[in-house]
Amino acid sequence: MRLGRRGLLAALAIAPPMGGARAQTAAGRRGEPDLWFDPTQLPSFTGTVERYLPNPLGEVDGLTFREGPQVVFPPDVAEAVRRDAPAGKSVIIWGIRARRAPVITMLAFAPSSDATPVVVDRFYWRLGGRMAQAGGTALRLSGTVKQPYYTPQGEVAGAILEDGSVVLVPASAVAGVQDMLKPGQALAAAGPGREGPDGRALLAERLGPAPDALRPLPGPPR
C-alpha cells in the first residue's frame, strides 16, 4: 500500500510488518539486541536509496530516498546499511518519522521483506553534526538547494544541494536564513568541514546566494 500524492512528500510505501522475525545487530551478531522492545513492530517505510549523506565530521549518518524523505542513523552502522542497500537499491526502514517533516530515525532495516532485519541498538539524534566547531578544513560550497536538511525532530538545520553536498547551519542562526534553505534557491557557504568519497559537508560560518556574496551568519533573534 502506498501513500497518496500529498504523502509522497514523504513518498514511502508501507511495508508489511515482520513480527517474530529473528533480528541481528548492525555489527552482524545474530540474536536479540539489547532493547526492551522489537523495533520491527514500528512503522515501516520502503524507498530507493538516492545517496548517502556526509556530515562535517567526515562521517556518514544519513541517506535520502529518491522519493524524497531523509533517514538518519548512527555513523557506526553506515557500513552495514550501505552493504545491504547501496545507492539505487530499495530498503525497508523501521523507525520513527518526525511529525512535521519527511525525516525518519532508523531503528532497523532490511534489503527486502524476506531478509533478516538488522537492528540499530540505539537512538541517534545527530547532535554531533550541529556542534559549534566541526573541526576539519575550511571549505566552500555552492549550488542549488535540492531540499532542506532536517534534524531527526523535523527542524530545518541546513540544506542538501543538488550535487549531494551538505550545508549545516548552527541552530542559533537558522531562523535568520530559512528563506535561503528552500528548494531551488542558489546557495553558497563557507565554513569548517570535510570532503571525502561520499561528498562534502560543512558547518556554515558564512552564507550567501553566490560565492562572491557571502555574509556572516546572523545571531540568534532577541
What features would you describe in this structure?
This protein has 2 helices and 14 strands. The protein has 222 residues and is mainly beta. The protein has 2 domains: 114 residues, OB fold (Dihydrolipoamide Acetyltransferase, E2P) (Beta Barrel), CATH 2.40.50; 89 residues, OB fold (Dihydrolipoamide Acetyltransferase, E2P) (Beta Barrel). A hairpin with a 5-residue loop joins strand 8 and strand 9. The N and C termini lie far apart (47 Å). The N terminus is likely disordered. Keywords: Signal.
Task: Considering the chains and any ligands shown, give keywords for the structure.
222 residues, mainly beta, OB fold (Dihydrolipoamide Acetyltransferase, E2P), 2 domains, five-stranded mixed barrel, five-stranded mixed β-barrel, 38% strand, disordered N terminus, signal
SSE order and pairing:
Blueprint: E1 24-25, E2 44-54, E3 60-65, E4 70-72, H1 78-84, E5 90-97, E6 103-110, E7 118-119, E8 137-150, E9 156-161, E10 166-168, H2 174-177, E11 186-196, E12 199-203, E13 206-208, E14 215-216
Parallel strand pairs: 1-7, 4-6, 10-12
Antiparallel strand pairs: 2-3, 2-5, 3-4, 5-6, 6-7, 8-9, 8-11, 9-10, 11-12, 11-13, 13-14
Overall shape: it is: elongated
SSE arrangement, N to C? EEEEHEEEEEEHEEEE
| Main sheet strand line-up | 2-3-4-6-5
The class by helix and strand makeup works out as: mainly beta
Number of strands: 14
Task: Report helical residue fraction.
Answer: under 10%
In summary, what is this structure?
Residues 1-23 form the signal peptide. With 222 residues, the protein is mainly β.
